[in-house]
Design a protein that fits this description.
Layout (H helix, E strand, L loop, with lengths): L7 H6 L15 H9 L3 H13 L14 E4 L2 E6 L7 E4 L2 H4 L3 E10 L2 E11 L3 H15 L4 E4 L3 H10 L6 H10 L10 E4 L1 H17 L3 E2 L6 H9 L19 H10 L9
Parallel strand pairs: 5-8, 6-7
Antiparallel strand pairs: 1-2, 2-3, 4-5
Helix pairs in contact: 5-6, 8-10
Length: 267
């Protein structure tokens, strides 16, 4: 071989100074919020996990439940478990709170909207929540089930259980074309909080102000506490102080449950 060894040190003397053409920077809080506003629950978890813990996107597929260790209101995450590159990192409270889940059931008793069931979970089993909703459905027999639109996979799973069309976006579009409220064509109904937050808030406040709303302070402590501490933004969304570990999932599910009675709540 006619290999020639080059003197790299001398060659570098003739190279120009390195100049950076692109400046890399982190996403701002406002930019992350814009992404989260149009993301479903799965996408929110991915975005918050990467933004808060510094995880590379290639590390996400190998993360398992056993790699998450709850420490107060954050998680310690073991990355690349079992490899020479294994390390651990931490997520922020905002990220850890995306795994919470809540169910509220409201029934009309003697002209009073009464909370008969309200519970909140941290990192519940997906299958367990599906089974519980089915049990509650046959126990309380609600006319409709309202679900946060940010959980499309959960919505479709419920629709399968109740023999509904899982392509609910097309059902909604068809109802709009026919000029019919899509709720008449569904049992499991997705609700977009970003779109209906102000309406849901107004309905909730109206019921409370008219003393049409009742619940047990003993059985529903989480909901009572959240009602007392909640603060709202101008658009009707809850101003969630997630940095302090405060959640309002029970209150959100309560506002959703009230939607079933909107036709009878005329001002």
């Amino acid at each position: 071989m006619n290999d020639i060894t080059l003197n790299k040190k001398k060659i570098k003397m003739f190279k120009g100074e390195y100049t950076r053409k692109v400046v890399y920077r982190a996403y701002t809080d406002k930019q992350i919020k814009k992404i989260l506003d149009v993301s479903d629950l799965r996408a929110k978890t991915i975005v918050l996990l990467m933004a808060s813990s510094g995880l590379r996107i290639g590390a996400l597929p190998d993360i398992r439940i056993r790699n998450l260790e709850k420490i107060n209101n954050i998680y310690k995450i073991t990355v690349y478990e079992g490899s020479n590159s294994q390390y651990f990192t931490f997520c922020t409270p905002e990220c850890s709170l995306t795994s919470r889940f809540s169910i509220t059931v409201i029934q009309l008793e003697d002209s009073i909207l009464k909370v008969v069931y309200s519970k909140e979970w941290d990192r519940p089993s997906y299958e367990e929540m599906i089974r519980l909703v089915i049990e509650l459905k046959y126990c309380y027999r609600p006319q409709k089930i309202y679900v946060d639109g940010a959980n499309p996979d959960f919505i479709r799973s419920l629709k399968i259980q109740f023999n509904e069309n899982t392509d609910y976006e097309k059902v909604i579009e068809r109802a709009k074309h026919d000029k019919i409220d899509h709720e008449y064509r569904m049992f499991v109904i997705p609700v977009n909080f970003n779109e209906f937050a102000a309406e849901l808030l107004g309905r909730f406040q109206y019921c409370v102000s008219k003393k049409w709303f009742a619940m047990s302070e003993v059985e529903h402590k989480e909901l009572v506490q959240q009602m007392r501490t909640a603060r709202y933004k101008e658009n009707g969304n809850l101003d969630k102080d997630e940095s302090a570990g405060v959640t309002y999932d029970s209150l959100d599910s309560c506002r959703l449950a009230l939607k079933m009675f909107e036709k009878g709540l005329s001002k």
